[in-house]
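User: Can you help me understand a structure? I only have the sequence.
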Amino acid sequence: MAATVNLKGNPVALVGPELNVGDRAPEVIVVASDLSEVTVGGAKGKPQLIITVPSLDTPVCETETQKFNQLVEGLDIDVCVISMDLPFAEKRFCESFNISNVTVASDFRYRDMEKYGVLISEGALKGVLARAVFVVDGEGKVVYKQLVPEITEEPNYDDVLACVKSL
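Assistant: Let's start by predicting it. Here is the structure, written out as C-alpha cells:
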C-alpha cells in the first residue's frame, strides 16, 4: 500500500511501492539540467543521497536544495535533487544559486521516481514528487529514509548528515 503525506495538514496519497530501509534502491533514470540522462539508485560502489522535492520554484525546495548543496561539500557521496521541473528551469536555478555540489535532475520524462513511492497521486500537487530523502549505500541498499510528513516543511538535515557520515 502506498504511503501518504500532508499538504497544509490535508492528507494526500502517493503512488508506487513504499520503499523502506533495507530494501534495494531501484535504478531510475532522470534528466540532468544539460538534458543528459542520469541513473540514480542501484549499486554504484559509493553512497548516494537521493532527494525528492515538489518544485525548485518554491521557497522550501529552494532552501532545501541550497542547504544540501552546502552540507555535502567535501563529502564523497553522489547527491541528486530530483523534481518534476523541466531541465531548463533547473539549469537557471543552479546558475542563480551557484549549485555545484549536487546534481539537480528532473523526473519529467520517465516518472521513474514512482518506483520510490514518492509520486503524489491526488490533490493540487498531483503529478509532482513528495519531499523525501533516501540514503543508499555503495551496494545499492536503502540505509535511511525520510518521507517528510508535511510537504511544506524541510527535512531533518541533522539526521540525514549523521547517516551519510556514518557510511
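Now, to help you interpret it: The radius of gyration is 14 Å. The chain has one domain: 4-166. Let me know which part you'd like to focus on.
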